[in-house]
Amino acid sequence: MDAEKKARMLLEAFSDDAGGRQVASAANQRVTEKVAAQWEAAGCLVSRQEFPCFRWQRHDMRLCSGDRLFSAHISPYSHACRLKTPLVRASSTQELRRMDGAGRIVLLDGELTRHQLMPKRFPFFQDAMHQEITNLLEGRGFAAVVAATGRDPYMAGGVYPFPLIEDGDFLLPSAYLTSEEGEELAQEVGKTVELTIDTERIHAVAANVVGSWGDRGGGKKIVVCAHMDTKLDTPGALDNAAGLVVLCLLADKLQGYSGPPCVELVAFNGEEHYAVPGQVTYLERHGKDLSAILLALNVDGPGYQGRASAYSVYQWPEDWSEIFADTIASHGSSVMGENWYQGDHMMFVQQGVPALAVTSEPIEEMLAVAHTVRDTVEQVCPERLVQVAACLHDLILTLAG
Ligand SMILES: [Zn+2]
């Protein structure tokens, strides 16, 4: 099959569930198997790195005060609750510090809800201010949190409102609503409100898929990765079925490759998850020999329709600069992009490994689509994915040579 046709077919196959591929969901398990099958067919050695987790299921919710019903959403991974208790409001950290939760529901807005809170146990980065807010919410006896939010493109993509809390380790039930709806709800402060959140957690196992060419034999390797999972309620075509397609096209091109260096493809499971379980599992398994990684290439959000592919490098050795510039220049619609620090390349960069990230320009436009229901296959140009795979293949062969 011709590469562009295959790219289109895989893109549709990987993003066939509008509900998303969040870790351990049925769609997530299907995409894991599809990727493994593609790589096996291309002749590489495929393994799965399994880890325990839970599948989160969301059912109904209801937020009301007397006869007044409010339009709100359940925060991803929230615990369930059935509450009838007074509502209080906090708009700043100072206010929160002075409050006693006393079993009440707290409405958060203002500076407290400008950015999504970093998950409590996110391993690669923490924010002292976010940690304090989380500690105050959990430690002051509140029964639940309702957050009025706007937009936060870098942390939450293009969704409005965004969930302030997206953290399976957070101890309280939580919900979120638009800032307009939050203003309405604020009029009920002091009154008794009802909040029902119906969710469940089911123990599950999920996995990264790892495929490799060439015998390591203690030698160096090049890692090429893309994440498989998505946020909730998005088909995740651009973010990041498109990246998986690039890895599959690259696998086809690598047929017969024997190295050195070894080339390892990794489909990570957890980039959009509060605890990045796939990435943590990978580091646990490979932590000791990260120094064997010559280079890590991360593909996330490539092929945005009508836009150029953006390549950025991190800790790139001086003598590779020319190779990089020449390779990018020799492939159509490719530019050197600005650095971005949210993707899976950063876990390698933090360990001192040179990295390259591929996405689409301009990042702001792409972020407006990412994580939303609008992230459908129409956003992605299959031809561009073929170009990215060819460019990465060239780069690998040049560096290997
Ligand atoms: Zn992504």
CATH class type of the largest domain? Alpha Beta
Query: What ligand species are in this complex?
Result: zinc ion
Radius of gyration: 22 Å
First CA to last CA: what distance?
Answer: 29 Å
**Total domain units:** 2
Helix percentage range: 25-40%
Number of strands: 14
Number of alpha- plus pi-helical segments: 12
Assign the CATH architecture of the largest domain.
3-Layer(aba) Sandwich
Strand-pairing-aware structural class: alpha/beta
Give the secondary structure arrangement, pairings included.
Blueprint: H1 3-14, H2 26-41, E1 45-65, E2 68-70, E3 73-74, E4 81-90, H3 93-98, E5 105-108, H4 128-139, E6 144-149, H5 153-156, E7 174-178, H6 179-186, E8 192-213, E9 221-227, H7 237-253, E10 262-268, H8 277-286, E11 293-299, E12 309-314, H9 321-329, E13 334-336, H10 345-349, E14 355-360, H11 363-369, H12 382-400
The structure holds zinc ion.
Question: In a nutshell, what does this entry contain?
Answer:
This protein has helices at residues 3-14, 26-41, 93-98, 128-139, 153-156, 179-186, 237-253, 277-286, 321-329, 345-349, 363-369, 382-400; strands at residues 45-65, 68-70, 73-74, 81-90, 105-108, 144-149, 174-178, 192-213, 221-227, 262-268, 293-299, 309-314, 334-336, 355-360. With 401 residues, the chain is of the alpha/beta class.
